[in-house]
# Entry
Amino acid sequence: MKTAVQNNLSYPRIFPTSKNTALSSEVSLVIGLVGPIASGKGTISEFLKSKGFKYFSLSDVVRAETFARGLEITRENLQDIGNDLRENFSGSVLVDRIVDEIKKHDFVVIDGVRNPQEISAIKNDLGGKIVHISAYKSRRLERYLKRAKVRGEDDATISKFKQVEARDLGVGEGENGQQVSECLSLADFKLVNNLSLDQFYLDCEKMLSEYS
# Structure
């Protein structure tokens, strides 16, 4: 269940460095990320990329499909298209579409995991581990509103946050829909992102050491 993660890369200053988390060509590690909205999945993705992990996003697969259908890239459309793909192909279709590319890399992080069938594909087909990113709802709301302001999203409100979060977690969704709440129970490791960034990065280091 544990995998060594070793590396000779130089790290950006904002990330703590550790002799125990250098990448080795003798091992491989695939990490899938699950967590509620604005919990810090993007932050840990950047951390892992700095360690040499290749980044993939299931949301990017949905964005490509949404664009191909000539639809506007909105959260609601992305949720609808993701559900439609899982319903008409398979529950793991988003992973299936990029699995060949994933297998070209030894160290991979997969963001945007929202359905248990995607977790099954990551664990069973790729031998991956699932990491749950958690944070207080108040902190996530604060991050959500701040992020939306930077992106120029005028419709970001507390009410909107509650609405998109509920659907993301699985409220009113079928088995092929958004099921983040169920996914959390399938995680192999949990990271709590309530304190400073420095502490979160240190906890990320500890998480990697669990697989060494």
Notes: Residues 29-209 form a domain with the Rossmann fold fold (CATH 3.40.50.300). Residues 137-151 form the longest helix (15 residues). The two ends are 10 Å apart (CA to CA).
